[in-house]
Fold each of these.
Amino acid sequence: MSEMRRVTAICNGTVVDHIPAGKSLRVMQMLRVSVGRSNPISLVMNVPSGKIGRKDVLKIEDRELTQEELDRLALIAPNASVAIIRNYSVAEKRQIELGEELVNIARCTFWNCITQDPREPLPHKLRVVSKNPLEIRCSYCGRSQTIDQLAESII
Amino acid sequence: MSDLITMDDLSNDEILEILDTAERLLPVANGDVYAPLLQGKVLGNLFFENSTRTRMSFESAMKRLGGEVVNLSSVGSSVAKGETLYDTMQMVDGYSDIAVIRHPRQGAAQYSADAIGIPILNAGDGAGNHPTQTMLDLFTIRQAHGTLDGLNVVLVGDLRYGRTTHSLSHALVRFGAKLTLVSPDSLRMPTEIVGDLQSHDTEVIESENLSGAIADADVIYMTRIQKERFPDEDEYAKVAGIYKMTADDLAGAKSGMIVMHPLPRVDEIDPSVDSTKHARYFQQAFNGVPTRMALLCRSLGVEVPKEVGE
């Protein structure tokens, strides 16, 4: 519990624990938690973890992440644990699960995919071909996507 | 209703069944027998990109089976005015019973299939897939060798952007073909496709050397280096004309080896090859008609009788 001493407990909000060390900034980017919002966010990086060696922890105050947002998290931190905090105690634990298809979570990154035209109205769909190792392809054009590229094309 | 977007949409048994149907339809494709199996049906032939053989053979296939064809090309239509593919497809859904689509954007065929209810046949989406070409290629290979199993196939040229080789290689490894992929380094088969091919229990070799692959080949599948797919003209200039096959090059080839090409060719097959016993590309182009007839009937749920024309 050494990381708890580094950051104070939050009253209400979401704690994302067991993020692979160094990935928390990417998690913030994927969740878009820092875009246009004024919630306080605490970030702890590289703290020792019995479970995964070293880990990052993210605490987002006054905001409960939705399941749809957590599905995005599954792309880069599929083993992270998520707790919804209400009145300083864990009100709910949420599971992160990478589904078979990611709908309107990120755009295909291939420059010549039909979905690159912003006026085309159908949803952006990515297919999880394999979970370990993680392989994701566009459901339309079939191109493989890297996580780094996808992080830049989050919707 | 069934779409054909990639070769993954067909099992091996379905492929063989379609080839059998195509064989039965040969006299209709030749014009010797009239079999109006698709009378009253309308095909939407949607070509957002240039085509000669694919467009004409689909039109010929539909008309020889008594069906009608409505055509759309991007020039002179609302596409040129900036209409989305989604909107265009809504019209096509109302005007036809089945649609064939060729589009410069990859994924356009799957997108169209998701957008509307009528069956969609992918006739080439960017550098993606071209499964109806693959079906006629497989028809041609089986016609020559009597089987699709375990052949030694050499794919040559633009394997990076060449959608015909992408679809064909996926199908061939499922029949246990040994594949030799011959291309300049800059036009190698995309790594995810090579990975898919290698996941089958068969040999896949990458090489830059065509002459070393000729002697053992059962099929040599030449392709054009596609200038229009290069983002940069200098890159095209570096590899243009890199493979040129002449009749002399085939002196050491197996007697039954066939040379195929999806056409159009530029200079990768010298006209001297045309008169050799190996040349099969014009026959291959004709085979588009019976094969596409079989595909149209299948997608429209029309059964082709065992004895066509009776």
Note: Residues 131-286 of chain B form a domain with the Rossmann fold fold (CATH 3.40.50.1370).
Amino acid sequence: MSLSRIALFTLACGIAIVCLTSAAELPRNSDYDYDPPTPGSYSLPVVKPAADGALLDSNNKAISLRDLTRGRITILSFIYTRCAAPKACPYATNVLGQLHSLSAQDMVLAKNMRLVSISFDPEYDTPQRLATYSENVREQGSGCEWRFVTSKSRAELAPILAAYDQAVNKRQNPADPQGPLYHTLRVFLIDRDGRIRNIYSSGTLDPRLVVADVKTLLLEEARVSKQ
Amino acid sequence: MKTPINSQLEIAAIWHVVVLVAAFALTFTSGLARADETCSSPYLARIDGQEEFVYVWTLGVEGMGDGADKLVTVDVKPGSPTYGKVVSSESVEGRNEAHHGGFTDDRRQLWLAGLESSRIFIFDVHTDPAKPKLTKTIDNFAETTGGAIGPHGAYALPGRVLIPCLSNAKDRGGRTGLVEYGNDANYIATHWLPTKDDPRDAADAKFADGYGYDARVLPRKNALLTSSFTGWNNYTMDFGKLTADPEAMKHFGSTMVMWDFHTRQPKKVFQVPGAPLEIRWAWGDKHNYAFTATALTSKLWLVYQDDRGEWQAKEVAPIGEAKGGVLPVDISISADDKTLFVDCFGDGKCRVFDVSDPQKPKQIYEKQIGKQVNMVSQSWDGRRLYFTSSLLARWDKQGADNEQFLRGYAWDGKELKPAFDLDFTALKLGRPHHMLFGSTKIGANRATVASRD
């Protein structure tokens, strides 16, 4: 099976899982075997400001990362579409898909949450490819904003990866069944003012925790506005 | 609108998931050997293949070499012409009571802590893993963290490091906290250990002493467990003077705390008398338990989830039979959760326990490593173990008993056989303490690939 077919297969399995779970309560499972916290019962300290950078959206239009990390509570995920490691990019996109489906049933999330998938493989992940990818992974016409972005070049991407501490290396074997790149899994929770409030990776990217965190930030906003 | 391919996949979704799981299992059981440390953070990018270097955070000794603390890199590549030799040494400023350290989750940086100075030294181990370079120093730790001092080590979390501390700037006693920094050394938060007077809703907080030492996470249970040692006043005191001072000896930790990891809120305090030190969570998918050893009472303790899902702590085995104890210090669990190596500073022995039944550990072997021994690091395949000698600058043995070494051993499941021996005194390096594995081949973290492979 070619690498691109493996990646497509892995991604498609993720989509299927999204479809199966989106209408139900997000389940407790053996990977996340605990009850999620009550939103607002804890705080999320500021990690650091979310950096800006020059990107291209899936319509090949120049866009600033700053515009995607302000004004809404943003879940930002670094991915590449050729990734076939089931618990890496396909898993992250699957989680964003679950959040997107949830937001279709929750007006508060739909209005206040934004999802951003940013590729660190600009040579392969062209705007056109991302457009196709996005059609495959999200329900159309409902749910919160979900943007898929890439960059013009590695040179434009490099400062973004550095600012978000996103490690990416080429594998020694470009035909590796997991995909041609090694990377840490990084998904960021960014508040409406553009401040990183949490960083998720494998082992912490539990959609129930992400939802609890988003709602915690919404409650924090409500408290601040009352004051 | 969904695409046709999605519609087809919806019909076959369950079958695809089954196939995916099977493919995943095949991929990771037939691939590279995994040989990373067994005691590292599950969030840490792991080494693919065998470790190539052992990094040794080494205390400087006045009058020995440059007298400064240093990061010593030892080549452990089999067949290398420099196998078992020092290939680089990078000194930091002064002597800081070099103690423990840890990588950032991407394994690009190694953070090394100074217990006495509360400074943290950050090394780049990515550009040239054979020759780490000091790139940054945090030297305002107490001011930045709101008074936490005595950073004990650094534990990789996603995009950040967790630094469990031992003391506080106010009275230099045992009350302390957990500190978080981002990977780019920006301070994030301090979480103080609960006390009787500041219980923060933790169960059994009447026992809480506020002391700290180690902090380790079991991700799938959202469980953060901490242990407790002693404060700056004690760990900087001469060992003979300390043990002769009944008042000082009262100031040792006797608790462990279970936290909600995500919220960083303490949930339950356990009474574990005698300074419970290193924490080792089991790796098995259904193994909901961790071991620790109590330094002053020479016992193995188990923290486990009972049938009702409640976390409990219980003493499960004595360590050694010497009167007064053998001062167990570091412990290392094998990747299959069957074997626990326990280093005992008091008599210089490593004791090996069969912990297949975690409720009933049985000692199966012991080996004299040196006149004194402190840290032990084990490869993921369980075949190689490395030992160092130094505990604390003022607690190490004196005279001829003050051996300072890094010793490599092979383990065949029955006995430890020497592989190499580096005399850190003869090499004028100092007192070797914490060891961490390095490599040029770094992959994804263990949580990404599987909990066990």
Note: Residues 207-226 of chain A form the longest helix (20 residues).
Amino acid sequence: MPPNERAEKQAAAQQAVDILHEIATILNCHLDRRTLSICISMIENGVNPEALANVIKELRKQGQEAQLESATAAAAIAGASTRRR
Amino acid sequence: MANNQRNRVSNAIDSLITHLVPAGPHDDEPSVQERHDACFDLVRNIFERPGSPAISSDVNHASDLIKRKLIQSNPSQALRFSNLYTRLLSLPVLNQKWAILYLLYQLSDSPDPNEPPPLSPPKPPPSQQAALRPAEAERRSRALRASRASTAVPTPEEEVVQDAFAPGGLKKLPTEKPKRAQPAAAEERLQAQPPVDGTPRKAARDVSIKSTLLADNSNEFEPSEMGLLRDLPFTLQGLSSTTLPFAKDTVLKLPPTLPPPIVSLLHTLAEPSLLYRGLAFFVKSPAKGLLGQSLRAAINNELRSYLTLVATLEGQIRRALSALDETAPRGGIGKAGVTLKRCVVWTREATMGLRLMSLIAEESNTKHGGQLISMIHGFSTSHGDPVVAAFAERLLADVTRPFYDILRRWIYDGELSDPHLEFFVREQSPNDEDRKESKAKGQASVWNSKYEVVDAMVPSIITADFAQKVFLIGKSLNFIRHSCGDSQWVDAYSKTSSKQLCYGDTATLEAWIDEAYKTTMRRLMHLMSNRFHLFDHLQALKNYILLGQGDFIALLMESLAANLDRPAFAQYRHTLTAQLEHAIRGSNAQYDSEEVLRRLDARMLQLSHGDIGWDCFTLEYKIDAPVDVVVTEWGNRQYLKVFNFLWRVKRVEFALSSTWRKCMTGARGVLQTSDEQVLQTWKSTRGVLAEMVHFVGQLQYYILFEVIESSWTELQNNIRKEDCTLDDLITEHTKYLTAITHKGLLGARRRQFHDALKDQARDPADPASSATTEDRNSYMVQLSELLRTMLAYRDCVDGLYSWSLSDFTRRQEADAVHLMHRNKKAKLSNPNPSATAAAAGLDMDDPFTTSAGGAGSLRSELPALQERLGQLGASFKARLQILLGDLAYQPDVDMRFLGVSMNFNDVYQPVKRKRPAAAAAAAGGGSTAAQGQGQAAATANTSRA
């Protein structure tokens, strides 16, 4: 693959990601560019979009749970420290 | 290759997991790994599941979905999306654009992952729980218990949160929500690193808690929202269902167990249901007229579109209900996107329409025909809400259809096909009060008594002017068809120019109607002048009835004079008609058209005892069917009135001039006498006779030239105009007749300044008495008195003439006898010169004359004659002076002029008639103002005198 062609393709991909990101913003998808590009590559590799949507929702839920856990842990630590004080 | 792909996918999954589920700072390596693995499994599981087959791999489909969503929620962004989309399509790199778009569509409006997750109620921090008021806490725990009882999912709280953030919820606060969410999220992230203090995060949690609580609290009613939604389509169609039965026609029974918010929602939803029920009933009820029917049809159409809306709604509800997760709390309705609130929003516009329609339906019960249209038109023009106006406008297009059908039939066929009396033109009912009255006056005719405009029924979509035009068009067509017998033309006309009229384009409609108006009017006038010779008839009426044709009238009078002097019962129709025929043949009238001449007829009026032929004779001009709309029965009567008056004047003139002629010829022969007294009598008589001739001449001149001819010219000018209609013609002709009768001193009441004042002062008191006083003083009465006086005078003059004649013959005889005597004497003795002198003088006291007794009687007649002549002459003069006095104060210039021309050299002293003292008292008693005016008038009088 000649290098200039490759660069061209990359630029086009970049553009596509730009456009799609903008659409995602309009639609309130809360997808950042990285997630979006991962999704694009997955879909280009033949993943079912509906399933992927479910996956993303599911993973977000997990992420929130994890955050919550860490937060409670932090709160517990903070509480403990105040009580200690 | 496949392997490669799978590898790539799993790599991507890995990165996705690490990206979306970040490891907390306090988590240790194994737990992170563990979670990562769990996530990976989960993802795998989801991917293994068979995807829904419904998704079509069409790029347009996905974009359409997005576009529709955007238009619903945020129209301004839709355009931006379209731009982006076209740019995306032009990019060569991606193969699965639709899939990406579909993914985005699926993820759209998803909750922000950075938002703090709601606190799970089982594990809230103790400080938070303490902060809650006890009651609230209790309720919340109850709610929790209930929710946990109904659902056994591991993470019910998550669902609840998503419910609270359901699209409906987000849309309501499109700007506020992210704003509130964003700072909270930022703080969260900030706080996440140094977990020192919990206070800022507590605020964020409060929000979450509240929404959780809200979501939980709304959960607790029976029947559930799901059940209500299931039954809602039926309710909206006005059908009873188990949860929402209709108790009566106008009562919807709500289940008593519902909480107030839901009840209020259902109240809102009950409105269209009840309105629909009422309207459906109204549509099925029998209509009173065509417009009522069309109104029902139009409303039915609108109801059909309402039902379409309900059907769509039902489809949405069914889809949502089938997609529902039965196990979720509140049935997971929020997620499905169809809630009672939504239904309220969706049916809102339809409710407005239904409300307006039921208002119209209600009002239509009392309104009828054109009023109905006016009412709906009122909504469309004067209602402030543009939605209502547009709705009424749309309704109007359907409702007015029968009206325009009737209108079309009316202006193109001239037929009134209006079985329910809804049009603004109506056939007059024969027992109408007005109609009877006008019939009694003789003004009724086919033209103006067959149809009438009902002002109340003129719909406001057409102006009054326009309605009048429409009325005239139809009336003319109808008249042409039925009275003029020209239905072929009407048929041809309606075939060629008939157009479909409908509501909306008012300008075109007006143009059409104007055109129709012009065509019909032109045709009608054409028929009137060419086929029915209207103008010829008018001319003939003027010539014969108004004595315009001088030679004819003179000849007629001459030939009839001898006949008419006889009593009325000795007049025979055949002699009259024969004389009429003779007059026609002998004058220029013979060149008039046959059409005109055969209508001319001479006959006797109803005779009363003692009348002579002159009083009863009348000429008549017969007018038949279509023309009699112009020359009505009333008009005929006016013509006759004028004819009779003119005929009398003419007769007096004729009598006076024949007497005058006799006197003049006699003056050279038989009237020559040497008696001073007789000569004096004759001189004064001739003077009075000349006065009378002058008077009659002036009167005739005035009526024939000043009145009739000038009115005739005016009439000609007016009816020869280009755009003259039959109505104009009728009014002009009536005006013409009124002018003639008024100025011709026939109809006018003698109306003095005082009388007018008096009438104003006590107008409503007793109009009858004032009318009678006026009648007594009318010119008509004065003139007939004058004419009678003149006739009597003329009789007297004839008497004087015959006395003079007999006197003359007696003198001749006396002369002859004297001559004989003288001859005898001459034979017997010498001639006596003194005797001849005596014979040349008067022979009255000749004791020898044989006719001495007769001479005495003749002699005694002269003073009686003198006295009578003097009396009649004085009375004539007095009456004339009164007439002149009245004429001098006429408002009409022409009538004043008559007075001037009669009295041009101030021979007469016009007498200003004094008002009776009693009347003055009455007027004075009436009101002080009138008194003041009366006094002013009186002083004016005296000063004038």
Note: Chain A has a mean pLDDT of 77.
